[in-house]
Design goal:
It is built from ten helices and no strands. The chain is mainly alpha-helical.
Amino acid sequence: MSALPELAPFAWPLLALAACIVGFSKTALPGANTVAIAIFAAILPAKQSTGALLVLLIVGDVFAVWAYRRHTSWQTILRLAPAVVAGLALGAAFLAFASDGWVRRVIGAILLLVVAVTVWRRYFSLGASAGSGGRTGSIVYGSLSGFTTMVANAGGPVMSMYFLAAKFPVQAFLGTAAWFFALINLAKLPFSFGLGLIDASSLALDLLLVPGVVVGALIGRWIAVRISQRVFESAVLVVTILAALYLVVF
């Protein structure tokens, strides 16, 4: 484990908690992984935190896809795909030239925008169509999700708002989100390796944190099959807003 990064003792339990949150967010509460983003970004350099977190997200994706494999709207995923690809490419180009300081500032700005979108959808667009604005909504949400997930692994809150606006039941919400982010995160791997965001140090760190992802995913699955639609939607909104505000402030 000589490749492990040098971290303060207090950092390890925080990273373990973040790993659990990653797993939990994948199988129960999309958007909660914003808290994990905050923890990783506070402990590791911004770019390194993005690469290390990506591998853990993919591990969580495996559990989410398996748990909700029968509850996926492929039509929704295909409709979003072109805009997401464009957002990923833009995000990769940004990371190639941005410093850690710029990445941190963009993470804050991205999540502040997510808060604004959340409030707008909740209080001003309750009469919007199920498709979150149809083709325009797919382009806006898809491209923003692609960019935010490439730059900061923060596409979850954006797409949570899209799926909520589409009025997806809990199982369909989680199943569509599972496959959506599984495909996106796999597509991000070549970019992340090419940009040096994933290296021996981050992989060694991930190896130690994978058990936390597994525990969180199992807990999330247990809760998801027991939660009501109303409580689920409220929890998604609250977690998205609070986690985004936390990152912007700190």
